[in-house]
Specification:
CATH topology: Rossmann fold
Strand content: 5-15%
Number of helices: 12
Order of helices and strands: HHEHEHHEHHEHHHEHH
Structural class: alpha/beta
Shape: globular
Bound molecules: adenosine monophosphate, magnesium ion
Helix content: 40-55%
Strand order of the largest sheet: 2-3-1-4-5
CATH superfamily: P-loop containing nucleotide triphosphate hydrolases
Largest sheet: 5 strands, parallel
Number of strands: 5
Radius of gyration: 21 Å
CATH class: Alpha Beta
CATH architecture: 3-Layer(aba) Sandwich
Distance between the termini: 47 Å
Amino acid sequence: MPDETLKSLRSLVPPLRVKPGATVRLPHDFDPANTAKFRDREHAQAALAVGVDLLRDLQPKLAAQERFGLVVILQGMDAAGKDSTIQHVMSGLNPQGVTVHSFKVPSAEELLHDYLWRYARELPSRGMIGIYNRSHYEEVLVVRVHPEYLGPQHLPPSGDGDVWHQRFNEINSWERYLVDNGIEVLKLFLNVSKEEQRRRFLERLDNPDKTWKFTLADVRERRFWDDYQQAYAEMLSHTSTEYAPWHVIPADHKWFARLAAAASVLDALERLRPRYPRRVSIPKAELQRARAELEAE
Ligand code: AMP
Ligand code: MG
């Protein structure tokens, strides 16, 4: 029953949002194994298909209208499922209207710029959907967990303020500017549990087709799990705003994470109400002449 499915898809999103100003504690506040009202993979797959169909209908309107862009930000620990979420959610979209960018350790050139520069360079234009696999939020996550990464950033001597709160403010202002200018910001935190990450790492080691994904850095970073949880909690507490709220996506069940991410993208696009432009710049008489010429052939 598509109507029921659509309803359950839409009702999925509001509870995922982090209330602006809320103080978030991790892992207490959000259960990574939550699957809302969805019983199992089959149930979720049917709903995902409905969601993807709707995305497929909205995207060409967004593209034709050339008024709004949408940047989808994916954050999460290693093995949280960022890559597979991108693959599934975007399966129904026209690749011409989507850009995907994975942000890695910054290059020497990037480090010579202000820290938001490389993220601003990859923003989608009006009509496009841009997906960020990691984002400017790494600047208050990995860099916060390893403050020695600030060293190579060529920063001026800091004042009295704390660099992380300064960055929260700067990020909030930057996103306010983007939204005011028609570039919508959708933020998804894929919330995986420590035990599920361990399971996925072991699977990567056990399955020769997946081992290429495993890096020694993965186990090294896992040792900082609690520091990351603390950094994520602070990020969620300070950068979930009315205009660009965070969505915490339960990520222990990949089938549910995909569905919740797709529902969030759908929700963001529906809010933009994209429509095909009706105003045609060609004078009516010219259109009539063109029609007559084609019909006369
Ligand atoms: P992956 O997403 O598995 O390809 O890994 C990308 C790596 O780049 C991760 O270990 C991130 O922590 C790292 N990374 C991304 N952004 C930054 C940044 N701004 N500063 C330092 N490391 C980063
Ligand atoms: Mg990795």
